[in-house]
Structures are given as C-alpha cells and as structure tokens.
Amino acid sequence: MTEFLETMPVGYSQFFTTSEVADHARVVARRGSHLVHAEICAGPSGEQVCVVAEDRPGLLALVTDALLVHGLSIRNAKVYCRKRADGLSEAVDFFQLQHSKGEVGIGGAELAAFLQTLSELVAEEVLAASRPSVAPTSSSPTTRVYFDLEALRRGEVTLLVQAPDTEGLLNAITNALHAQNVHIRASEIRTENGVAHDRFDLVSNDAQVLSAVRLCDIQQAVHAGLPKVARR
Questions:
Q1: Coil, helix or strand for 151?
Q2: Is there a common fold for 2-130 and 144-230?
Q3: Dist. CA 114–CA 25, nearest whole Å
Q4: Distance CA 28, CA 50 (A)
Q5: What pLDDT, on the 0 to 100 scale, is given for residue 151?
Q6: Pairing state of beta strands 89-99 and 157-164?
Q7: Domain assignments of the chain as residue spans, ordered by start
Q8: Confidence grade of residue 160 (pLDDT, cut at 50, 70, 90)
Q9: What sign does the CA torsion over 120, 44, 27, 41 have?
Q10: Burial of residue 206 (number of CB atoms within 10 Å: 0-12, 13-18, 19+)
Q11: Which superfamily does 144-230 belong to?
Q12: In this structure, which topology does domain 2-130 adopt according to CATH?
C-alpha cells in the first residue's frame, strides 16, 4: 500500500482513509494487463466506481460516452494520475454514479456492462492511434467533444472540440456554452484540412466550481448543439 500511495498525487491521501487506500491499491493491482479495469469500492460519500486505465488524452470523454450508453451520469468524481514504477502514467479515477432517474449507485451487472463498453471505446482509440497517418480523404472526420484531463487535474476547465469545419460551427458552440451558464475565458480556434480544432478555457458565470455533473452536461449540450453535418 505504501508503494502505491507514493505514486499518487499529494491531494489523494487527504480524501481517503487508510483502509480505502489499501482497497484502491488492490483494485489497481488487479488491472493487470487489461486496457481498462473497474470495480465498485467504498468512498467518503458512499459507493463509487474506481476506473483504472493507461492515462490518455480524452479518457474522461470516453468514460462519459460509455456512461451515456447505459443511462448513467456522474454525480461527483475525483481523477488522479500516478507514475508507475515502469514509467507509464496510469489514471486512477473515482466516480459516484447515478441513473437518469436519480438513483445513486450501480450493481455488478451494470458495472460489467459499463466496463465492456468503456474497454471497447479505449481499444478503438488505441487501434486508431496505432494506424499510420494518411492524407485526409473526402470522408468527414469523427467529431469529438471532450475535456482536457490534464487541465482538470490542475483545477482548470478546458473544453476541446474536433469537428468538420462547417458554417455556424463556432456560433453553435458558443451558444451552447452560454446556455450552460459558462464564460469563455480564453479560446483558440484552428482549422486544418477542413477540420476544426477548437479550445475553450471555461469558468462558471456564477463563480461556482464546475462539478463533474456540470461538466457532463456541458459536454452533452455542446455536442447536441453542433450543426447536424458536424455530428457523427
């Protein structure tokens, strides 16, 4: 347990008891060679799901995508990145989940279904990253709306949008953000080969910290508000 704790960020130990840390260390060890591993474990605010995976850009977006498939959303979350002894970075994230009707927590069968979906999404990302780069084709690129995980760990909220550059795209994004009561503190708009790569640094208009639930709502609202041709 001590070895595991030494690999975790300093803030991690402030939120969990010694017995919880020991439980988490066992969960992380059981990941083994799996792309993704998840278990239900105890937390300060009740049962939560611990997700362990190789740290990668867009991992939180994949988690929320998998949750949406099963009618689940995030009530609260804590996300961490640890440096393993082999030098690899590993995400160790904790989510308290709720159903669309507000019921908190999930059962073993629901966890297994969520884990299967998330594993498939991560496997697709790994496969896509392993393919050699090719020249753009006439087919439209996949649209992605997700938060920068590294920025979240620094306490910052940065929304990333990748989508075919279409008329009204920026307007749709900014309108969706405005409707979610968030302010764009800074942005970077870039288009390459007909693909928009947009970055938005966000803060809440009400000066409140953007919770995991609000982040999920913002992500869904922006994606739903994109011009139809940009949503795939």
A1: helix
A2: no
A3: 21
A4: 9
A5: 85
A6: unpaired
A7: 2-130, 144-230
A8: very high
A9: negative
A10: exposed
A11: ACT domain (3.30.70.260)
A12: Gyrase A; domain 2 (3.30.1360)
